[in-house]
Write a structure and sequence with these properties.
The structure holds two protein chains of two kinds.
Chain A: E1 3-14, E2 17-28, E3 32-36, H1 43-50, H2 54-58, E4 63-68, E5 71-72, H3 78-84, E6 86-89, H4 101-105, H5 128-141, H6 157-169, E7 176-180, H7 188-203, E8 207-211, H8 215-221, E9 224-229, E10 232-238, H9 244-252, H10 294-302, E11 325-333, E12 338-346, E13 351-356, H11 362-369, E14 376-382, E15 385-387, H12 392-397, E16 398-401, H13 405-408, H14 416-428, E17 432-433, E18 439-440, H15 442-456, H16 472-485, E19 490-494, H17 502-519, E20 522-526, H18 530-533, E21 539-544, E22 547-552, H19 558-566, H20 569-578
Parallel strand pairs in A: 3-8, 3-9, 6-7, 7-8, 13-20, 13-21, 16-19, 19-20
Antiparallel strand pairs in A: 1-2, 1-4, 4-5, 9-10, 11-12, 11-14, 14-15, 17-18, 21-22
Helix pairs in contact in A: 14-15, 14-16, 16-17
Chain B: H1 7-25, H2 30-49, H3 52-56, H4 65-81, H5 86-114, H6 119-140, E1 160-162, E2 176-179, E3 182-185, H7 186-202, H8 206-216, H9 218-223, H10 228-254, E4 256-258, H11 267-276, H12 286-310, H13 315-334
Antiparallel strand pairs in B: 1-4, 2-3
The chains are: A alpha/beta, B mainly alpha.
């Protein structure tokens, strides 16, 4: 096959740390190559070099040779990359938030009316109608049919990802497409749409280099897989001789798949509605009869110390206990999806999964807790009390981690220490000294942070290192540890494993189970990834058209979950009948509260 | 060590050393210089400090400082109109300044919340738009103390009111102290120091830290349940009140209350001083205010005698303008 891209001896340093060391591989025309590796292995650096990202030259350029179609490239800016025919779909999106999806698609290559002579073509009128029409068609190919006219900042993150992908894919002069986690925030169905589009593009002769943490996806899509480990090429595998275990071994230097996936809550009998009941008392676990880890027991005993506080084990069945958080006929609209007469009861002490296909309600559910919270009708109850998301009491009891962790969950310029302790200090009254003044008790906070770093396995140079410098996986760990430090009654996490490697993913799911099991924390995981939910959650609510249409119990496997997500309209009728959360006349009822709340 | 010092601070420090050398070479009395430098530090510190709350809340440099300054002038005028003198007069002036500053600051904060993301430009124009309104007020307000009014006609306040009969130098002379021949205005320095310490202490508390987080990441703050709009209004209010108090401190030391358009001239030097103190456009603390005002005011103080000795005396003002505007421009270029 004809070589399109040839990389030889590529090295890159960021100050003292070496991000890439003598990396060499090639990519043929029309070939799809997956770039695999743990967080911090150098994948994003390589993509940044190829896309001419400013940060590369700002930090001292790179060494080696990059040849595209026989022409050596210097790639000093994104403009150089675009001129060479290289486009990139970023994990951190690069759309203009104030423009519509269609306008973003045609930015810098606007459709114009050909009324002026060719020399003056750049002054020609933009044909908005043609752009709208063509844009709608391009987006419809990826399943986006609603919200193409509103500013993209009002669209959900998955939809914005699809818009960015559509924009790069539709470039006429595209020779090499770089994809950074192209399906990280998409459901399997939506991921398949994108992957099909990638295959079509490759069939036309475009080379594709993509980064993914989903190994099965890489094996299914890529012709070859390049594995990076600590900046080196740890191996290059063809689809024929690659299996998941071989790749994981190359990525992590050990057989991670042999380890136990994660310690989940003690199993219980599913209830009549497909729900699992929480046992009346904590089941003996690996930390002894109480089910609490030693530190938690010590905390219980002494009432002080640097450990994360323990909450007594659940004393009554969740089924009998009133819901800790309840949505009753909640209706809210975001530009691309809605919640409609949404009913859901979150039981104390459970891990509840919430999922749907793109545009079917998962995004609206996630936004309900977020900064972009929209007015709603219906009732939201916290421990039986009617509340709104903006109430201080709600925020005190319900911690929320959005899918956009860099923007919503972290103070990037602040240190690991400050990120881990600030919410608990400012809002939960911890780490305070000097009585009423409530000054920051740095020593106590450092003890706590050191314990959290150890417990959550956060890799950082020191507690003073800015979070901005950590890898995506470690940033996610900091975000989770921060939320856990608040000891909330309910922890709502959205797409918790997006953009993190297999090892971190395992660790995160393990912690959710641990927080739930040992501290009695109620956890809601909102995710499009079946692996985040199956085996972790006591119940999984599957949303469609903004309502809970299926409630799966612990016994449900991945196939059952996927089937529930993909169910057709005929099945919806049954699903509604099965939906335990929507019983009692909720389904189809007109929202009770006429006025909108915030 | 030098790597951690911002370029404006470095340049100013070098310049300060050069000026100091030239001043001493020109035979200027160092003890008098030191005394004047301490007085300048106390005079301007609170005004510079008033910029900190808004910067902490992510509202940028407070170019709307004339609003706070006007509130302070109004407080002083109310005190003078009541013919209060000495410490009582100054205390009444501060009370009036805080009350009027709170009102102005609240409204100012509400307006800046509407202009979110463009606070600096909005502040400039609010400041400029506010001064003509205040000019009308100074002309028409029913003040009755003849010492404040135009001598001819008896209507409208004078542009420059002498504070000698009221509370001029009440802080400067309150606890005057001479150490090694240097006149130390202890009262003035203590007053400014207490305010600096209070502001620094406030931002070290849990509540104070939430203000900083609002400035750093609004979405993060909102998700944690922190009232972003409330914190921003409170920051604008605090900045305005501190500016009002700051002008009272400045005026009692200067000996005059300058009304009408004079309120506009306080902003740029204060902004420049804070930047010289190592603050960026979005991060500032009481320490930056203290360091900045010390360097900037001392440099300004030295430039006049040095220019008189070696150059034409007019060059001082030109030099000051170039430095002030240059430092502010640098802060914008750094973004």
């Amino acid at each position: 096959m004809e070589t399109l891209l040839d990389i030889s001896g590529l090295s890159k340093r960021y100050g003292e740390s070496e991000a890439l060391r003598n990396v060499s591989f090639s990519l043929a025309r029309g070939e799809i190559v997956a770039l695999l590796g743990a967080n911090g292995s150098g994948k994003s650096t390589l993509l940044h070099i190829l896309s001419g990202h400013e940060v590369i030259f700002a930090t001292g350029s790179w060494q080696g040779r990059i040849v595209l179609d026989g022409v050596p490239l210097s790639l000093r800016s994104p403009r150089d990359a675009l001129r060479a025919g290289i486009s990139m779909v970023h994990q951190e999106l690069s759309l203009l938030p104030g423009l519509s999806a269609a306008e973003n698609l045609f930015l810098t290559r606007e459709r114009t009316r050909t009324s002026l002579p060719r020399r003056l073509a750049s002054l020609d009128w933009v044909d908005r109608a043609a752009q709208r029409e063509e844009g709608a068609a391009v987006l419809a190919e990826l399943g986006i049919r609603a919200g193409t006219e509103v500013p993209v900042r009002r669209l959900s993150l998955p939809v914005r990802h699809l818009v960015e992908f559509a924009r790069e894919r539709s470039r006429g002069d595209l020779r090499l497409l770089l994809l950074d986690e192209p399906t990280s925030c998409l459901n399997r169905g939506d991921s398949d749409t994108v992957l099909d589009a990638v295959r079509t593009l490759a069939a036309r002769g475009t080379g594709v280099l993509f980064v993914s943490h989903k190994i099965s996806e890489a094996i299914a899509l890529a012709d070859r897989m390049v594995v990076l480990r600590d900046g080196d090429v740890a191996g290059i595998f063809s689809r024929r001789d690659a299996d998941e275990r071989t790749l994981v071994r190359a990525m992590f230097g050990g057989d991670l798949l042999a380890a136990t996936p994660h310690a989940s809550r003690p199993d219980t009998e599913p209830g009549p509605d497909g729900c699992t009941a929480i046992p009346p008392e904590a089941t003996p676990g690996r930390w002894g009869p109480s089910g609490l880890r030693p530190e938690a027991k010590a905390k219980e005993k002494t009432g002080k110390g640097a450990t994360i506080p323990a909450v007594p084990a659940v004393g009554k069945t969740a089924e009998k206990a009133p819901p800790v958080l309840a949505f009753e006929n909640v209706t809210t609209a975001t530009p691309d999806e809605n919640l409609r007469n949404f009913c859901l009861a979150v039981r104390p002490g459970e891990i509840l999964g919430v999922t749907s296909l793109l545009g079917q309600g998962k995004g609206a559910f996630s936004r309900f807790f977020s900064e972009e919270h929209m007015p709603f009708s219906g009732t939201l109850r916290l421990k039986g009390r009617t509340v709104t998301v903006r109430d201080a009491s709600f925020r005190r009891h319900v911690a929320f981690l959005s899918e956009d962790r860099r923007r919503d969950s972290l103070l990037l310029e602040r240190s690991v220490l400050e990120n881990l302790t600030f919410p608990a200090y400012a809002l939960a009254g911890r780490f305070r000294r000097m009585g009423p003044l409530g000054l920051f008790d740095r020593a106590e906070a450092e003890r706590y942070a050191a314990e959290a770093v150890r417990r959550y396995g956060i890799t950082c140079a020191s507690l003073r290192q800015p979070v901005r410098e950590l890898s995506g996986g470690n940033q996610q760990k900091v975000a989770v540890a921060k939320a856990a430090g608040l000891s909330p009654t309910v922890l709502v996490v959205c797409e918790p494993t997006r953009g993190v490697d297999l090892r971190t993913k395992r660790a995160l799911l393990e912690w959710f189970a641990e927080l739930n099991r040992e501290e009695g924390m109620t956890i809601v995981i909102c995710s499009g990834e079946p692996e985040d939910l199956v085996g972790v959650c006591s119940r999984i609510a599957v949303l469609r058209e903004g309502q809970v249409r299926r409630m799966l119990g612990r016994g449900a496997d991945e196939a059952a979950l996927l089937a529930a997500m993909e169910m057709d309209r005929e099945a919806d009728g049954d699903g509604a009948a099965n939906g335990p959360e929507c019983g009692g006349g909720c389904v189809g009822a007109v929202p009770g509260a006429p006025e909108a709340r915030r | 060590m030098m790597r951690h010092i911002s370029p404006p601070t470095r340049i100013m420090l070098v310049f300060l050393v050069v000026l100091l050398t030239l001043a001493l070479k020109a035979g200027i009395d160092p003890t008098r210089l030191a005394g004047d430098a301490l007085r300048k530090l106390g005079m301007s510190a609170v005004l510079v400090l008033s910029l900190v709350p808004m910067m902490r809340a992510g509202m940028g440099l407070n170019f709307g400082m004339p609003i706070g300054v006007s509130a302070g002038l109004l407080g002083m005028c109310l005190s003078m109109n009541a013919r209060l003198t000495g410490a009582a007069g100054f205390a009444a002036a501060l009370g009036g300044a805080v009350a009027v500053g709170s009102l102005f600051g609240y409204v100012y904060g509400r307006i800046l919340n509407v202009a979110k993301g463009r606070e600096e430009v909005a502040g400039v124009f609010l400041g400029y738009a506010f001064l003509p309104l205040m000019s009308v007020f100074w002309t028409l307000a029913p003040f009755s103390n003849r010492k404040m009014l135009y001598p001819v006609g008896g209507q409208g306040l004078r542009p420059r009111i002498g504070l000698d009969p009221f509370f001029a130098g009440v802080l400067d002379k309150g606890f005057d102290l001479t150490v090694g021949g240097v006149a130390v205005p202890l009262g003035l320095l203590l007053f400014a120091g207490v305010l600096l310490a209070l502001v620094a202490l406030f931002y070290a508390t849990a509540t104070g830290k939430t203000f900083s987080v609002v400035g750093e990441n609004e979405r993060y703050a909102r998700i944690l349940g922190i009232s972003v709009e409330g914190r921003r209004i409170a920051s604008a209010l605090l900045s305005t009140v501190l500016a009002a108090v700051g002008i009272c401190v400045y005026a009692q030391s200067y000996g005059f209350a300058e009304l009408y358009e004079s309120a506009s001239v306080m902003t740029f030097p204060a902004v420049c001083a804070l930047l010289v103190g190592g603050a960026s456009r979005w991060r500032a603390g009481a320490a930056n205010a203290l360091l900045g005002v010390a360097i900037y005011q001392t440099m300004y103080l030295l430039s006049t005698p040095v220019a008189n000795a070696y150059l034409a005396s007019e060059t001082t003002e030109l030099f000051r303008m170039v430095v002030t505007n240059g430092v502010i421009l640098y802060a914008f270029l750094r973004r």
